[in-house]
């Protein structure tokens, strides 16, 4: 058995499914369902996380089920890989496409919030009053940063600092007689 103390490992869930290549594009075996692949990942010694592919493994319609399944198996989602490789629209690149509409679609497709952000947003943030929501963002910088990354909101508005009270005028100082300067060569004429 391999020593895994102190190290964390993850696996791309699709690697536990039906592998295929250019010689056998249909794959070499039947494709197992997602739950079977998750159980296989949980059975690998030292694996505590999985990488999921958006639209294959995780979609808006199964986020809750996937989150529950991961929790039940003691796994965490370490990343969601955007599916920028299986649709013809990405054939000439996603972020580097010459077509501006394709680049915009790639950005929109990629800026999906994390499961934790969605959970907090829907259970805590969305129901607060405006001032409470600003306070929540200020108290939870990771939550705020994820909202900024996904374009959910712009930078946290900061109230201008109130003006400082005017300073009292300085106290008058006792007038001191200015020192007299001496000329070179002796006493100043007319002064004795």
Summarize the structure.
Helices cover 31% and strands 9% of the residues.
Q: pLDDT below 50 for ≥5 consecutive residues: which ranges?
A: none
**What class, by secondary structure content?**
alpha/beta
Please provide the count of β strands: 3
Spatial order of strands in the largest sheet = 1-2-3
Share in β-strands: 5-15%
Query: How many helices?
Result: 6
One letter per element, helices H and strands E, the order comes to EHEHEHHHH
Helical coverage, percent range: 25-40%
* Largest beta-sheet characterization: 3 strands, parallel
Distance between the termini: 106 Å
Rough shape? elongated
Radius of gyration: 33 Å
The mean pLDDT is 77
Explain what this protein looks like in three dimensions.
The longest helix has 11 residues. The chain has a domain of 75 residues. It contains six helices and three strands. Strand 1, helix 1 and strand 2 form a beta-alpha-beta unit. The chain has a three-stranded parallel sheet, covered by helices on one side. It has 192 residues and is an alpha/beta fold. The radius of gyration is 33 Å and the shape is elongated.
Keywords:
alpha/beta, 31% helix, 192 residues, 6 helices
Topology:
Blueprint: E1 9-12, H1 34-43, E2 47-53, H2 63-73, E3 76-81, H3 100-110, H4 115-123, H5 130-139, H6 141-149
Parallel strand pairs: 1-2, 2-3
């Amino acid at each position: 058995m391999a020593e895994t103390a102190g190290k964390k490992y993850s696996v791309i869930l699709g690697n536990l499914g039906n592998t295929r290549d250019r010689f056998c594009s249909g794959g070499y075996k039947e494709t197992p369902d997602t739950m079977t692949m998750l159980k296989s990942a949980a059975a690998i010694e030292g694996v505590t996380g999985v990488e999921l592919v958006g639209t294959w493994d995780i979609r808006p319609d199964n986020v809750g089920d996937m989150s529950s399944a991961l929790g039940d198996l003691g796994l965490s989602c370490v990343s969601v890989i955007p599916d920028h490789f299986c649709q013809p629209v990405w054939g000439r690149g996603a972020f580097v496409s010459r077509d501006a509409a394709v680049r915009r679609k790639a950005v929109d497709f990629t800026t999906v919030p994390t499961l934790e952000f969605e959970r907090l947003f829907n259970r805590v943030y969305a129901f607060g009053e405006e001032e409470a929501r600003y306070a929540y963002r200020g108290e939870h910088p990771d939550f705020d940063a994820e909202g900024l990354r996904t374009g959910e909101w712009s930078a946290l508005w900061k109230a201008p600092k109130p003006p400082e009270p005017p300073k009292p005028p300085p106290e008058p100082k006792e007038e001191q007689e200015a020192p007299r300067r001496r000329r070179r060569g002796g006493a100043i004429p007319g002064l004795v």
